Amino acid sequence: MDKRLYAAGLESPAAETERNALRPEPVERRTESAPSAAHGASLMVLTGAVRMSVTRHSRRWVLGAAAGLGAAGLTGCGLLDDEPEPPEVPDPLQPLLDEAVALAASYDRAIVSQPGLATRLTPLADDHRAHATELARLIGKSLPSTSASSVPSAPAGAAAETVASLRTAEQTAQKNAVAACKSAPADRAALVGSIAACRATHAEALR
Questions:
Q1: Taking a C-beta distance cutoff of 8 angstroms, is the pair 170, 206 a contact?
Q2: Residue 138 · residue 181 · CB < 8 Å
Q3: Res. 205: pLDDT tops 60
Q4: Residue 130: its pLDDT value, please?
Q5: Domains along the chain?
């Protein structure tokens, strides 16, 4: 019976197996699937975060640069300069000028209180005023305005005491002028030396 079936056109099991073995195996094609919506969303979020971070840093850099330029401009204009101006150094002859003014004022007070000494003391007072004028011109200073103050008259016996006091002041001033003359430059030494000599003469005149 089997032989009849095979003769009628049916294949035997062995023939079917052989035919299947000779067929080429189908090649499996792998296709890449489109990215899922969730994956795309994560990419978009990541890109957005990176852009925001870059923008934030860029703004900080721009603001920092602008602040630096502004501070540099203010410093250049001197608005941020808090250092005080250096104090003015007094001229070495300033003490000699102050002393000449003080001596002239002392003689003026003595003349007011002792009118009998005016003839003797007035030339000496005038010398000190001349010294003060020359010293002020030399160091570029203006003389202070002085006015004779009202001094009560001294008793007649006080004249000797007034003269002795003025002589002591002249001796001290003469020593100061000599010290200033030793340290003065050549263009000033002549004037300071003449002042020292004049004060020595005054001290002798008041003996």
A1: yes
A2: no
A3: yes
A4: 98
A5: 94-205 (1.20.1260)
